[in-house]
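Dear colleague,

Following up on Tuesday's group meeting, I ran the structure prediction for the two-component complex that the binding team flagged. I've pasted the input sequences exactly as they went in, so you can double-check that nothing got truncated or mislabelled along the way. The structure tokens for the whole assembly follow below. Feel free to forward this to whoever is handling the docking comparison.

Inputs:
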Amino acid sequence: MRAIDVRQIVKRFGNFTAVNGISFEVDEGEIFGLLGPNGAGKSTLIRMLTTLLPPTGGTALVNGFDVVKQANDVRRSIGVIPQAMTSDLELSIEENLIIYAKLYGVPRAKRGRLIRELLESVELWQWKDKQVRNLSGGMRRRVEIARGLVHEPSIFFLDEPTTGLDPVSRTAVWDMLRRIKSTRDLTVLITTHYMDEADKLCDRIAIVDHGQLVALDAPVKLKASIPGKNILEVSFSEAPPDWKVRVDAMPHVESVEATDNIFRIASDNGPATTLALMAAAQAAGVTVHSLSVQSTTLDDVFVHYTGRALRDAVQEASVTDSPLMLRRG
Amino acid sequence: MPRVWAIVEREMRRFRRSPFLIIVSLVFPLVQLIVLGYAMGGTVKHLKVGVVDQDHGLPAVRIRELAGAVAAGANTYDIVQYADPGAALDDLRNGRINGVLTIPPEFSRKVLTKNEPRVALIQDNTDNFVSASLVGNLGSLVAVFNEPATPVRTAGKVALDVVEVYPYVPYIQYLLPGSISMSIFMMVMVGGGIIYIDDKARGLHEGYLVTPITKLELIAGFNISGTIKAVMSGLTITVIGSLVAGIPDPLDPFRLAQLLVVIVFVAFSLISLMFLIMVRVTDPLMPRAIFGVLNTLLYFPSGAVYPTQGFPTWMQYLSAVNPFTYAVHAFKSLLLKNTPMTAIAGDLAYLFVFSIVAMSAATLLFKRTL
């Protein structure tokens, strides 16, 4: 049985289609990443899968349960970390977990042991009596991770769990997630903006844009799917008008993007292209200000599939919302 | 049911750790009780009345003596003698005195000849309370003047004997029922409505909605915890307010138990009303914005500060549906009249029906999804 099975799922808010016929499957035990620009429909998708929003069309089975018809069964089998920090600031770490254990109906006999195990695994046991308001952002996130697992779910949804954290806290959160995943039979669906993290952690990645699935595969395969094994970023001074055409004709070059005097060159042989480029620049009297050669990253994959245009994301507002309502992205 | 108590437990733990919230919701009704009670409850004293005697006859002297007696005794007003009516009127217009009692020329002659003698009160009528007080006092003065020195009781003359059922009720005691209702309302709004919307805006409700809690369990949890907080606030103000206002036997356990019943009914009706208003709101500014309006709409038309019989018809309709009206009436009955519960059965019945209707409507409007 698939852990998650999504078929042609659609969500419309009035005339705005936030999710437009997305289908995918997540295997049991898999870490599945959901990437996409702001406003692409990731949060809406995750909210539908966690029963927070009813789909307009299509179906989604989570743990074999229909998210509409068997919503409570879905809720019992999943843990959810929403995008916002939603722990009670006035309560202690342990109290937060106790309340949620009660909400999930965890038996009293199991509660204490489970909470201790979880707090130890996120390295917060020694702080269990501290009020959440006194914790750093990274610690709060770890509280939420422990809270989301307090009822031993088999699928864990995390909506941008590391957004807003400093690099050290981010690394700590990911390490803990990896450790928890290794000790539990857990399927993870995660959304993030950090491509390097998604690259290291996820078994498969889906890229969503404009409410549609634009790519889905393992990170290695996704990287292989776009032109160029290497990306060269070169900044020139006063490049001649035909410079882009000339660069495009150089050996091993697969594609060239130019913005002002900054060129982004995809090549299937970075060193060879670099040598040719430097020689051509010298011959043409063009000064090279900077040059960097990178292997293809998920950032490149992301940009390739979603484009480089800035998105002024119009948040997905329900038509029934009043103009005074606030909605988080 | 355990999920309901999990919500209640969470709310009460948070409440216990928010002393500022507790203080704010208790201080406002107490301050209002004390300030309004003493500001509006006293009798008007030391008004300044100018007396212009243009007659100087014996009856005029008697009028001045009677006015002087009130000035020396009850101190309702102080007398300022004027020889010149123009100067008295100038002082009246400039606010230095509150009224001018004029005894016109020929007053004594008209008294003796029984030819409709008159004295005049020229007054500053911009302040209704002062004006009414002067008219009442000087009207009594004229009545006393008209009485013979030794009253003659004739068989056919009707006399009114006033019998007061209850001891004198100072205005601060009259205000106390409204203040108790206000304290419950404050806690419902500050500890209930505002926190509810703030939690919603912070995404805390999202945390609830992904658990298997049902819609009814969620609503019951919010309402029970809101009611408990409001009851605690109402009971505290009932005890402190009774001591401050000088209610006889303020700690009588039987009456406190009766008051507790009323407080629970009032708290539940107001939390139901709040929940109905807030159920679809997500903007944290909204409860703050409507707080003042709701306060005015509930408190003043309830009879808490002024009898409802004095309201215009439209406001009487508002008063008739206002749960505060029934709360104030029930508290007044128990605190000021020490009535049995049967006397407030109607109030409790209305509050119960109101709660059920409001809560049912709120439940229908409540969305289990975002």
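Chain B is about 65% helix and 5% strand.

Cheers,
M.
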